[in-house]
Design a protein that fits this description.
The protein has about 260 residues and is an alpha+beta fold. It has 2 domains: about 100 residues, no CATH class; about 150 residues, Thrombin, subunit H (Beta Barrel). The chain has 2 helices and 12 strands. The strands form 2 sheets. It has a 6-stranded antiparallel β-barrel with strand order 1-2-5-4-3-12. A hairpin with a 3-residue loop joins strand 7 and strand 8. The longest helix is centred in the first third of the chain and has 75 residues.
Length: about 260
């Protein structure tokens, strides 16, 4: 094996010497001879050079395409983030417009607040807001979002307050139907639901009816939309009917609320 390598090296050295001598003009008419010998090697190295050049060119183009692809992905991610922000801003603007329509259509004294702690669960429904007794808040005041009843003030400190949502099991609000003079009590249920209880048998009630606050008790004004009837449960030999209520407000995305102060 070493002999073969030595022979190849000798041939290469010999050809290199011939090329050098020919370049100095010492071989004269023997140029065609050296040309015949060296031409195959020249062609080989030329082809190899072109192939190498093409390979590096392909690698460069691939690297450039990968870079451009990464830049496009980054731009797409930025656009998606901007779209998400715009959509969120649109939702907030719609909520603010709904609150503004409610405020301008009523004569209530109100206080706007932001939700700082969101803690609804399947067992409880409570949020904390950034307004308190300093702004005249007190327990029992009605709290709305987008014009819909969402709960009542439960606890108050100087600069914060806790809102008991209508889905909390300890929440009980006197209600009636907008379509009929049918009264009952909207009670929070475990699992973020609401049930309208104490509906006398024989009262007019159907799925899709709008449930509003009745104003009984004096704490919560009459006419605030609380939700909609989704299911009616009637049982024989009972004095009352129970109905399931779907909240009108989205209680899972509360960010700003309005407290009715009078």
């Amino acid at each position: 094996m070493q002999k073969k390598i030595s022979i190849v090296l000798l041939i290469i050295v010999f050809i290199a010497i011939l090329v050098f001598i020919e370049s100095k003009g010492f071989l004269g008419n023997t140029f065609s001879f050296t040309q015949k010998i060296t031409t195959p090697f020249s062609i080989f190295f030329s082809d190899f050079s072109h192939q190498t050049s093409d390979t590096f060119s392909g690698v460069f183009k691939l690297s450039k395409l990968q870079k451009e692809n990464a830049e496009i992905k980054d731009a797409n991610n930025r656009l998606q983030a901007e779209v998400a922000q715009l959509q969120e801003a649109k939702k907030e603007n719609e909520k603010l417009r709904a609150d503004l329509r409610f405020i301008t259509a009523t004569n209530y004294t109100y206080e706007a607040a932001e939700v700082t702690v969101f803690e609804p669960s399947n067992l409880r429904g409570m949020v904390t807001i950034n307004k308190g007794s300093k702004q005249g808040l007190k327990p029992g005041l009605a709290v709305i979002s987008e014009g819909f009843m969402i709960g009542k003030i439960a606890e108050v400190s100087e600069s914060n307050a806790k809102v008991l949502l209508i889905t909390d099991p300890s929440s009980a609000i006197p209600v009636t139907l907008q379509q009929a003079n049918t009264s009952g009590l909207a009670k929070g249920q475990i699992g973020t639901g609401i049930a309208m209880e104490k509906i006398p048998q024989g009262e007019q009630i159907k799925e899709g009816d709008t449930v509003i606050t009745s104003g009984l008790g004096g704490e919560v004004p009459r006419g605030l939309i609380l939700g909609y009837i989704t299911k009616i449960e009637k049982q024989d030999n009972t004095l009352f009917v129970t109905a399931d209520i779907r909240p009108a407000a989205n209680l899972h995305s509360l960010s700003r609320v309005i407290i009715i102060k009078n």
